[in-house]
User: Which sequence fits this backbone?
């Protein structure tokens, strides 16, 4: 049958770009590999070929991005990917969100960032180009293979958004709609998940993926350094990339936290969800890698740690990709991707580079320069210990998130925790001490010199900042009524990190802004930890269950944060008197206006009104979004869980 | 032996201790039969909401309490008391995960995750004639 109105050319063109980018990545890897092994005279011709192939690969990837956008913007619902992620009523501004909502789109986004970084590297890597780009292009082979969608020996390799037509999709093959040749006239897309129709979805994933992509640059340099047995030369070119990557990935994670707090109903900015952990862990090891890189640059005695941390950062990015996309997390995460049956493919991607990194590391192990023992008073000693603590923090989170993987290997039946409180217990018991140790080290390590420092002089220098931190901690402890010793210690160490770095900035650096980067970053990190501590430890449910029913029969259950509000009925929540005024419908949203009043003498004065909403979505189920009133020192969070 | 090595070994030993203890405390996946055999341990049970039987949710009495019947993957049915408000679209859920323990004849759950076919998978093809 000839179907009317299908745009098959678009998919064919898109698919052509996919194939071009895959083949060119293969060619680029081979040519760069040859170039790195050749003697000087043939070197240039191979690296010229490698460069040309990478440029063609880039054109392919950019073409893929362009075609997928084009199809989404024009509502080509004959394609499964467009149908699945978009609809006629989807506002244009969410086309980006629709683009990377699915696995295929996010793989494309990821390889797009690699292409941008790869082209910058070709210009800047100089004599590292051949080796570094060999690794870079080989990663691109794997990434583009994820969207190839060809069948090799009964195994479908990747999922291609350009070749899967809706009417050919196994789920819909035999439905009556497709017996009509003008089925497209009646068809609308399934639409974007309402949870993701949010501006954070437009900026959070690309930032995060740029962060993920920038872990490849240090990895490629590390492999190149091991390959060429140059343990020192790769550090200098890689440092700016590492700083950039730590910054971008960190911002991406913070954006996720802001999104979770503002729009999702997790009830907080961080829930230790497996997918959140998957992006946090590589950041932690990335930060560790950045610090030992500095030690290696200055002292040259940290080669094994530097290589290990750099390689593991990238491997952990691949591992998180595997966790979140292979379907192994099952139902335990709120935002893992839909399983596309790419388990084996993703595993081979992970295993290939894991084996490569491990092999390269161990064949060099005996050749690393022997290092003398670091002095206790040296800066590098504490940076090394700090990196070790960061590595352990990463290992702890990884193991706790990997229960499904452990079950698979050892046949155990451990469940990933689904309750917020249990997650807090598990992660905080280890991670709060980590934060205390790390922030303390942030406070004093900068005052130490490389090789050896005068201990007494350092103590004297730290006197003002440690004393002021102690006083502020005392005041806070009193004001917030803290009794938990961990909270008080964390309060102090974070305060000390802030005051210590401010003092370093003023007294040692004399306010020289060109050298202030690390101090400012450390203050920023300590402020985030401080904020996390204050907001998490002082979170109070003001809507404690006030109903008549006795909940004690349920034993240790204490989840009473919901209360029932009748229209125009007023309920007292701590200092507030709260009234549900009524609901109003705007488009697909139903807003529930809840008025917060305070009683002054005998009058009720309206303080503010919050309008949490429920987004109606007949196809995917309704979604509730909270509304929050921000104050300087507190937030009031209101969320509809059930409404008639 | 270098100082850094000693410190490394000490820190790693502590970490291994903490990690193995918290792994040991993890709740396990199981079914209703196992839950009733071990009434003191917290278990996560995966199953299906029974749409035929009665579902009680009376927010005017207690907005944080609902009860319903769930069939686990082995086919055993049990009354569930959940100390949470009724989620949006609960009736449409396909698979649910409950965390809790057996109390008498009932399963008392503190947390629930539900999987709606329409929300996470493709569901049915919607056709609009406008």
Assistant:
């Amino acid at each position: 049958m000839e179907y009317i109105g299908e745009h098959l050319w678009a998919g064919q063109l898109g698919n052509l770009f996919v194939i071009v980018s895959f083949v060119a990545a293969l060619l680029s890897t081979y040519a760069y590999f040859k170039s790195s092994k050749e003697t000087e005279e043939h070197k240039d011709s191979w690296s010229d070929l490698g460069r040309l192939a990478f440029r063609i690969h880039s054109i392919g990837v950019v073409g893929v991005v362009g075609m997928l956008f084009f199809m989404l913007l024009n509502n080509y619902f004959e394609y499964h990917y467009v149908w699945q992620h978009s609809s006629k009523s989807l506002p244009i501004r969410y086309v980006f969100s629709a683009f990377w909502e699915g696995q295929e789109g996010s793989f494309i986004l990821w390889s797009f960032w690699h292409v941008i970084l790869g082209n910058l590297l070709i210009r800047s890597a100089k004599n590292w180009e051949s080796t570094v780009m060999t690794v870079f292009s080989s990663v691109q082979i794997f990434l583009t293979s994820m969207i190839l969608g060809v069948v090799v020996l009964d195994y479908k390799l990747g999922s291609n958004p350009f070749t899967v037509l809706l009417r050919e999709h196994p789920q819909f093959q035999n439905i009556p709609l497709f017996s009509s040749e003008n089925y497209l006239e009646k068809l609308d897309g399934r639409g974007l998940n309402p949870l993701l129709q949010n501006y954070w979805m437009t900026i959070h994933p690309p930032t995060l993926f740029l962060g993920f992509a920038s872990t490849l640059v240090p990895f490629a340099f590390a492999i190149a350094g091991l390959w060429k047995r140059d343990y020192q030369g790769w550090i200098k070119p890689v440092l700016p990339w590492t700083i950039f990557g730590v910054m971008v990935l960190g911002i991406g994670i913070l954006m996720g936290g802001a999104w979770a707090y503002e729009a999702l109903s997790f009830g907080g900015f961080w829930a230790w969800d497996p997918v959140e952990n998957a992006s946090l862990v590589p950041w932690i090891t990335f930060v560790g890698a950045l610090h030992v890189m500095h030690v290696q640059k200055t002292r040259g005695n940290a080669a094994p740690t530097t290589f290990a941390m750099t390689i593991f950062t990238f491997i952990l990015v691949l591992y998180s990709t595997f966790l979140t996309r292979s379907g192994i997390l099952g139902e335990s995460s709120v935002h893992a991707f839909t399983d596309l049956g790419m388990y084996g493919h993703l595993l081979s991607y992970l295993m290939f580079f894991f084996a490569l990194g491990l092999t390269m590391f161990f064949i060099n192990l005996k050749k690393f320069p022997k290092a003398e023992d670091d002095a206790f008073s040296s800066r590098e000693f504490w940076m090394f210990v700090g990196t070790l603590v960061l590595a352990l923090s990463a290992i702890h989170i990884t193991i706790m998130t990997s229960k499904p993987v452990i079950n698979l290997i050892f046949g155990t039946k451990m469940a990933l925790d689904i309750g917020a409180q249990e997650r807090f217990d598990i992660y905080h018991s280890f991670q709060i001490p980590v934060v205390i140790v790390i922030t303390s080290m942030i406070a004093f390590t900068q005052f130490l010199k490389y090789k050896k420092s005068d201990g007494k002089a350092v103590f004297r220098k730290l006197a003002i900042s440690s004393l002021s931190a102690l006083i502020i901690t005392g005041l806070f402890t009193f004001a917030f009524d803290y009794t938990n010793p961990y909270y008080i210690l964390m309060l102090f160490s974070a305060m000390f990190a802030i005051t210590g770095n401010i003092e370093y900035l003023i007294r040692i650096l004399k306010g020289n802004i060109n050298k202030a980067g690390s101090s400012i970053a450390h203050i920023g990190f300590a402020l985030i930890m401080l904020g996390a501590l204050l907001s998490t430890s002082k979170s109070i449910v003001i809507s404690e269950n006030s109903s008549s029913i006795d909940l004690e029969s349920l034993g240790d259950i204490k989840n009473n944060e919901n209360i029932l509000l009748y229209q125009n009925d007023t309920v007292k929540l701590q200092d507030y008197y709260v009234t549900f005024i009524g609901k109003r419908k705007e488009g697909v949203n139903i807003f529930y206006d809840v008025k917060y009043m305070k009683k002054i003498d005998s009058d009720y004065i309206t303080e503010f009104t919050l309008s949490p909403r429920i987004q109606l979505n007949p196809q995917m189920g309704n979604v509730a979004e909270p509304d929050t009133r921000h104050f300087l020192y507190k937030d009031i969070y209101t969320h509809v869980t059930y409404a008639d | 032996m270098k100082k850094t090595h000693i410190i490394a070994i000490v820190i790693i030993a502590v970490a291994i201790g903490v990690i193995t203890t918290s792994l040991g405390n993890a709740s396990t996946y199981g079914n209703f039969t196992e839950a009733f055999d071990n009434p003191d341990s917290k278990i996560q049970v995966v199953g299906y909401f029974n749409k035929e039987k009665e579902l009680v949710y009376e927010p005017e009495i207690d907005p944080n309490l609902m009860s319903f019947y769930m069939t686990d993957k082995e086919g055993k049915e049990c009354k569930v008391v959940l100390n949470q408000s009724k989620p949006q679209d609960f009736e449409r859920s396909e698979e649910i995960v409950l965390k809790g323990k057996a109390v008498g004849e009932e399963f008392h759950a503190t947390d629930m995750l539900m999987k709606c076919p329409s929300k996470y998978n493709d569901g049915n093809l919607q056709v609009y004639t406008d």
